[in-house]
Amino acid sequence: MIASPCFLPAGFFQFVTVICQCSIPLLGRQLIRLIENKPENFMQQGIGYAFLIFSVTSINGIANQRQLFLSMQSGMMVRTAVVSAVYSTSLKLNPRGKLGITSGQVTNLVAVDSQKVSMNIL
Questions:
Q1: Which of 39, 56, 67, 75 lies in disulfide reach of 13, CB 3.0 to 4.6 Å?
Q2: What is the pTM of this model?
Q3: Structural domains of the chain, count
């Protein structure tokens, strides 16, 4: 819920990336078939396929970077929520509850465990 403003658009950009990565070889295959057939208007059709391959590759690069950025941002949001939850819980503990917990254990919970949770988002 907390990462949905970033996570859902990241999924859309991942979908665009997958579509682009699937279409590049198909366009290349069509260009190779065009070269093998050697039609009279080869330059017009060949330029069209070359432009399409260039455009799809460019869209792929932009969508891939945007997806990575949004995934990292949602991971940071989740990490911030975990750190906040651990700290608020540790501050609410009474002295009897803090008896078996050292400050090093709380630091490990915050540093290591929250990093593992945020990296699993990617």
A1: 67
A2: 0.72
A3: 1
